[in-house]
């Protein structure tokens, strides 16, 4: 319970800082502690740090931070992909050691497939070229979709690639190329979602959602069965949570199942919300 309370405190603290960051400049909150905190966090502290850095290192730390920030925001890098993998693997590491031995052979077979598919589709989404428009494929790409005269107009030129923009294409500032039928740049796959990999991306969403649902249903089923056995065991002489003679201490093993389910659910949530 102590760990949970600490996690809840950290989440609350981060949520409060996010609230201050986004809403601290609202006129409605002027002359409130929220506005004061916003100025402290985003004006006074950065100014103080910049002037200190100027005095100590001639501004080198500030310019390095700025370069790093630009790289993180506007270049391709697998940081979020690694974070996504860590969530996926972390959820499974918490879930499987407890749940796997209790699964039937059928659920072990289907579970193994459900676990592997998101990794396969993540790899295919990330490694497949999203549909780069090059000199070689520019002519067929121009004929691929008609212009709708609303979002896409004939004659528009990409100022970076210096080519006419095919309908439904977009220049990605992160990938630094024009992408055919571009949907969005997804930081979770470190790639654009375009004409050539949309199907892999949708399969990644579907397989991750199915894994979450499947894992959640199995986890709840396992926990319910054990609670029933535990109740029966208590009535028959305090045999404990599992009701299999392993005693009360085994109850602690079941907590990771729930945590794992929550972790994987979070993964699906952030993936779905990632664009726009
Ligand atoms: Zn372009
Ligand atoms: Zn991109």
Automatic annotation (TrEMBL):
It is found in: Membrane. GO terms for molecular function: protein-cysteine S-palmitoyltransferase activity. The chain crosses the membrane at residues 6-24, 80-100, 200-222. It is a multi-pass membrane protein. It comes from the Eukaryota. GO terms for cellular component: endoplasmic reticulum; Golgi apparatus; membrane. It is an enzyme of class 2 (transferase). One of its GO terms (biological process) is protein targeting to membrane. Keywords: Acyltransferase, Lipoprotein, Membrane, Palmitate, Transferase, Transmembrane, Transmembrane helix. It catalyses: L-cysteinyl-[protein] + hexadecanoyl-CoA = S-hexadecanoyl-L-cysteinyl-[protein] + CoA. Residues 155-225 form the Palmitoyltransferase DHHC domain. Pfam families: DHHC. Its EC number is 2.3.1.225. PROSITE patterns: DHHC (PS50216). Belongs to the DHHC palmitoyltransferase family. The DHHC domain is required for palmitoyltransferase activity. This is Palmitoyltransferase. The lineage of its organism: Eukaryota, Fungi, Dikarya, Ascomycota, Pezizomycotina.
